[in-house]
Amino acid sequence: MQQQYEGYKNLADYLKSASALLNLERESQLHQDIITICNHLVNPSFRIAVFGPFNHGKSTLLNAVLGNRTLPIDLVPTTGAAITVKYGSDVRTRIMLVDGTDVYRSGTEVLQQFATLDGNRQMRKDVASVEVFCPHPFLETGVEFLDLPGTNDRDEQDNLVREQLLSADLVIQLLDARKLMTLGERENLRDWLLDRGIKTVIFVANFLNLLEPDEQKQVQNRLLFVAESFRGELPPGFSNLYRVDALPALRARLKGDVATANSSGLAAFETALQNIVGILQPNRGNVRLPRVQAIASQIQYSLKAKIDPIAIEIKSFVDKQNTKIEIKQKAADLIYKGFTISVEELRDWLALPKLLTKYQADAAVALAENNFKSWQTNILKKDVTQLQLAAMKWLYQAYEFFQEERPQDLLIPFPSEPQVILPSKPNNTDDLSEPGSIAVGGGIGWLLGGPVGAAVVGSISYLLNKNIQKQDEQLANESYHQEIAKLCITTIEDYLSRFSSHGLSILSEYEQKAKKVICFEFSQEPLEITQKRENLQQLQNSFNQLLQELEKVKILSNHQPYKEIPKYSNTNKKYSPQPERVQTFSKKDTSVKQQQENTAKNSATRVESVSPPPPPKASPSLRPEEVEAKFRDWELNEEIARMKAEMRWPGSQTGKQQNTTQSNKAPNQTKTQTEKDQITRAYSILGLQANASLAEVKQAYRTLVKKWHPDLFVNQPQLLKQAQEKMHLVNDAYTILSDK
Question: What is the rounded CA–CA span in Å between residue 36 and residue 167?
Fold first, then answer.
């Protein structure tokens, strides 16, 4: 019993805790009911309430049971407070006032002052509770009586009665046999008792002795009908209907007239009442829990009414943030791929063997022809500038997207112009008359115009093409030409080597700097959302804890516990693409443009792998709101792609499986009537004529998605539900028509 008591105490605490989060008005009915039921849960006494309209003889009946005029009675409504009758060694009364004053008197005369209606039939506003102590053996067993004001008189009295009924383990509803079970009594029975889980109800008919014998028989039959219509949850074998002539019973009890007391029905009623209480009292928890369930259900629905809109708002925010983060990650990876490819192309181009193969011959000839500077500007600079810009454009695109560190330009400088010192001329030639050893800077054009100049240019091509390292002994003029050609070749090799080494070093530094550009920082959750999340978590925890406590006392619930809404991806951290996250490409895939073209070609058959296209380029002076607008457009594309995949858009994996299954069907297999009806209904949902083309189906679907997408109605719960239902129908219709 102690363990059960602790369980009820915990449940009462959680009920109060949950209700506190609802910010209920103190005067609201739910707040009053919660306080009443929580206090009643931990009350060790078994409480019996006498309930009914005014002047039905409630106080008279209780006085008859107690055997004295303990409670005030009169021909007009008198009881103006809920009077609790408890066991005491002598008769005394305790009045608790709202200001905390405790009025304690012997006897019950003080009730006339505090517990009856005044001359205007109004209850006293300053009375908090009224208790009467009485030395009755039935009360000594832990039973309490609750004498309630009459109903159907004043709203204030009705509210008090309705509240106090929750604290009763057994309700005695007093009926007037002269006007049996009025509409008001039926409504109160349903609304105040049965619908609130108060099902241990006994009916007592009063004033039957005032009717003629023939009328009594008719009333008896109607009473039986009432009893059968409103059968509660009393122990088996006990009736829920009794007759007691209250005033004759009280007079007989006061006079000690046992025969009259028996004929009034009092003795039979008392015996049944004691036996019923004897069975219910040890298991009073089972009596109280149904009404706890009714109140707890109201609390849960009220909590859900606060939880669900906040949860929808937070989840919508989280989903959008996660989608935006995912899109940014894809954008960063895509930019990083393009940058990596461009850098690899430039690195490959800067490799000395590649430079020598591509440029050494022409550069040596240009040097020999005194035209090196022009060659460097028009050929080498043009090529390296194109490769540099190809790498730089990705960083500027990243800056437009993420607004992180502004990128620097990639500039690979050229080494100083090569210089050639000519060797001494041979002595055995008649072709040359100039000095034998001349230093020339920037070219040896003086040789041009003569046979030696042509011979030098020819030797450059010959030596590079044949890769001749050593020459046999030849004529002096031939060896001289080759020696000059070798000088030009060696000079250009040194020039290109310095250009390659310096360029590769600058490129490596540029790659490291690029990491600060191709990245973005996860935004911190707004304070407003954080506060709402904390509020939501508190509400959900209270809801879940209440659910657990109800389960402990075996009160079943139709609700499921809430799960915490996860936060969006790591906050206050930066995302930088990593090589292992980015697919590498072979030499064949040398441009992102080619990849995008291939992806576009394959999108008709591989929708599940389609990535959203990058947003359009922004101008350097792009404003934040313009960036946000472009991201929103990109998010829409991503959402449509995801929805296509989820709907088994033709070409997705599921769609392939379905198409394969359909293709395996017998060619002459006809559609069933059910399938035909589904197709007809699908056309109707999309607003199309029967047999509309697939292109029309797609267009109708796109139009409806833009109109009914649930994200458009996040802040309109009623429309949100309608949109979700509409989209469900539209998705199903599209699936049917795209697969038919």
Answer: 6
The amino acid occupying position 452 is V
Residues in contact with 115: Cβ distance below 8 Å, sequence separation at least 6, in sequence order: 72, 79, 80, 81, 83, 95, 127, 130
Taking the C-alpha atoms of residue 163 and residue 35, their distance in angstroms, rounded to an integer, is 9
Residue 542 identity (one-letter amino acid):
S
Say how many C-beta atoms besides its own lie within 10 A of residue 190's C-beta: 12
What is the identity of the amino acid at 533?
A: R
CA angle 691, 694, 699 (to 5 degrees): 110
The DSSP secondary structure of 383-434, one letter per residue, reads HHHHHHHHHHHHHHHHHHHH--SPPPP---PPPPPPEEEPPPPPTT-SS--S
Collapsing DSSP states into helix, strand and coil, what is residue 151?
Answer: strand
Beta bridge partners of 241: 203
Contact of 688 with 696, CB cutoff 8 Å:
yes
Tell me the per-residue pLDDT of 458-495, one tens digit each, with 9 for 90 and over.
Answer: 666 666 665 544 444 444 445 677 788 888 899 999 99
Cα gap 643→401, rounded to integer Å: 25
Residue 206 forms beta bridges with which residues?
176
Tokens of 609: 């792998």
Q: Under a CB-based contact definition with an 8 Å cutoff, are residues 651 and 604 in contact?
A: yes
Task: Give the list of residues 6+ apart from residue 472 with CB closer than 8 angstroms, or none.
Answer: none
Measured CA to CA in angstroms, residue 8 lies from 40, 46, 47, 440 at distances of: 10, 15, 17, 108
Buried b (16+ CB within 10 A) or exposed e, 13-49: ebbeebbebbebeeeeeebbbbbbbbebbeeebbbbb
pLDDT tens string 450-460:
444 555 666 66
Beta pairing class for 170-176 and 46-51:
parallel
Query: Hunting for tokens 């109605």 — which residue is that?
Result: 713
H or E segment at 203?
strand 201-206
pTM above 0.70, yes or no: no
Residue with tokens 């039921």: 37
Residue with tokens 């005194």: 370
Q: What's the token pair of residue 276?
A: 């019923």
**How many C-beta atoms lie closer than 10 Å to residue 498's C-beta?**
15
Angstrom distances, CA of residue 519 to CA of 185, 515, 522 = 74, 7, 10
Tens of pLDDT, residue by residue over 247-302, are 999 999 888 899 998 999 999 999 999 999 999 999 888 888 888 888 889 999 99
Question: Angle at Cα 712 formed by Cα 678 and Cα 695, nearest 5°?
Answer: 40
State how far the Cα of 97 lies from the Cα of 130, in Å rounded to an integer: 9
Q: Comparing 175-179, 547-551, 635-639, which segment has the lowest mean pLDDT?
A: 635-639
Distance CA 265, CA 381 (A): 120
Q: Is 687 left (phi over 0), alpha (psi -120 to 50) or beta?
A: left
**How many Cβ atoms from other residues are within 10 Å of residue 240's Cβ?**
20
- The closest alpha carbon to 431, from 497, 377, 481, 370, belongs to 481
Q: Which two tokens stand for residue 335?
A: 């930019």
Give the integer Cα–Cα distance in Å for 494 and 345: 22
CA neighbours within 13 Å on the CB side: how many for 38?
19
* 101 residue type, one letter: T
Kindly state the tokens that stand for 274: 């004691």
Q: Are 47 and 168 in contact (CB under 8 A)?
A: yes
CA distance 12 to 31: 13
Q: Are 582 and 336 in contact (CB under 8 A)?
A: yes
Q: Closest by alpha carbon to 737, among 674, 702, 690? A: 690
